[in-house]
Amino acid sequence: xxxxxxxxxxxxxxxxxxxxxxxxxxxxxxxxxxxxxxxxxxxxxxxxxxxxxxxxxxxxxxxxxxxxxxxxxxxxxxxxxxxxxxxxxxxxxxxxxxxxxxxxxxxxxxxxxxxxxxxxxxxxxxxxxxxxxxxxxxxxxxxxxxxxxxxxxxxxxxxxxxxxxxxxxxxxxxxxxxxxxxxxxxxxxxxxxxxxxxxxxxxxxxxxxxxxx
Length: 213
Description:
There is one protein chain. This protein is mostly beta strands. 5% of the residues lie in helices and 53% in strands. It has 2 helices and 18 strands. The protein has helices at residues 131-136, 192-195, and strands at residues 10-14, 23-30, 34-39, 45-48, 57-63, 66-71, 74-79, 83-84, 94-98, 106-111, 114-120, 127-130, 146-151, 154-168, 171-181, 189-190, 198-203, 206-211. The strands form 4 sheets. Strands 10, 11, 12, 13, 14, 15 and 16 form a 7-stranded mixed β-sheet that branches. The chain has a 5-stranded mixed β-sheet with strand order 4-3-2-1-8, with no helix packed on it. Strand 3 (34-39) and strand 4 (45-48) form a beta hairpin.
């Protein structure tokens, strides 16, 4: 199989009249004859030019690092690093955050039903909580897999867990990966395990999150 060009994930949120919900199509990589895609958060899979998935996505052509698809009779070309479209307005679950005085975005939310205030951090791979916050929120972590991460205050031990639910405003996402840090965290972080499941739109001093899946 030709070598795949695996760069940043390309995300397109496609709204089509023949689907009851928005279709989330992600292009993970391309080769001269195939594209590796993920639909609605499923595991990535390779499809060949001409193949049509059960969701109605047909790969038409590959051009460089981009792929052209036919989706319900409409052609869409997705390239690395490009975000296209949004979820239908009448179905969208979204929240608008305002920047704080320091230019950071703070999200008031709920984890497993308990209230929490988190700093939006696109550099964090997952939600990060201190052991104190985890205990307060009823997150069981002592028997979870262990690991190490580097923080601004040095290397720290972490437990890797799955949160039952994380809610920010009207957006609720289930089964979200998180890290419980043994010290070195002054404020919980809202990382990419939650943020990657939203479409983020920055406009000046506001950040809009729209749920994708």
